[in-house]
Design a protein that fits this description.
alpha/beta; 8 helices; 14% strand; Rossmann fold; 5-stranded parallel beta sheet; 5 strands; 45% helix; binds zinc ion
Length: 221
């Protein structure tokens, strides 16, 4: 374990909660930051708060409501339906540059609290059309943050090359599978744990979990 401070970009969902457990295993001092951008489901913020309390992690909530002024999306507006990207287009949950903004603010916060490490759950493998989830973007932003603040931050992306089943495997390795299954919110309809089962986020999460559990059962048999 590194005797260093880390800040985890944290939404209360499966991916960032897995990252939080990963950070707790890797670093001696862990803090989390959640961005409040007017999510349709306030439960997301409550969920994030509850998890950090349970894990004894200091939690920062930053107001990013300006995101709504810049770009309305299905995550913040009731009148926009959640749809998969059609014909290679971006899904309606897309807010352009969201990770660019979040990670830049996380960098400023890291500098304020004296953290050299920033963890984010972005993932290129189940690339859903978000260009700022790509590994090349993260590496580029890492250089930019260091130049902007004359610092030596390290951006960590433990999920970058994992598919959803492998992300559950990592959660299990970290002894956090049940916690993540029961306490996290991924569902676009705001239903905690196993969710509504119908929305794209639930389907992705369930498929990954079933694949992982089937592989595990196969190995144990
Ligand atoms: Zn759902």
């Amino acid at each position: 374990m590194k005797k260093e401070k880390v800040i985890v970009v944290f939404s209360g969902g499966q991916d960032s909660t897995t990252c939080l457990f990963w950070a707790l295993q890797q670093f001696s001092e862990v803090e989390a930051v959640t961005f409040d951008y007017g999510q349709k489901h306030r439960l997301e913020i409550e969920c994030a708060e509850k998890i950090t309390q349970q894990l004894g992690v200091k939690h920062h909530i930053l107001d990013m409501s300006l995101l709504n002024q810049l770009a309305a999306s299905a995550l913040t507006r009731d009148d926009i339906q959640i749809e998969e990207g059609q014909g290679g287009g971006l899904p309606s949950t897309f807010v352009p540059g969201r990770n660019l903004l979040f990670l830049s603010f996380a960098g400023v916060l890291a500098s304020q609290i004296g953290a050299k490490h920033i963890v984010t759950g972005v993932c290129e493998t189940d690339f859903s059309g978000y260009p700022d989830c790509r590994d090349i973007f993260i590496k580029s932003l890492n250089v930019t943050l260091n130049l902007a603040m004359d610092d030596t931050f390290v951006l960590h992306t433990p999920l970058m090359w994992l598919d959803k089943a492998q992300a559950w495997a990592l959660a299990d390795e970290l002894d956090a599978l049940n916690f993540i299954r029961e306490q996290t919110l991924t569902c676009y309809n705001g239903i905690i744990a196993d969710g509504c089962g119908e929305c794209p986020a639930c389907k992705l999460r369930q498929n990954g979990l079933q694949t992982y559990l089937a592989t595990k059962a196969g190995q144990e048999a």
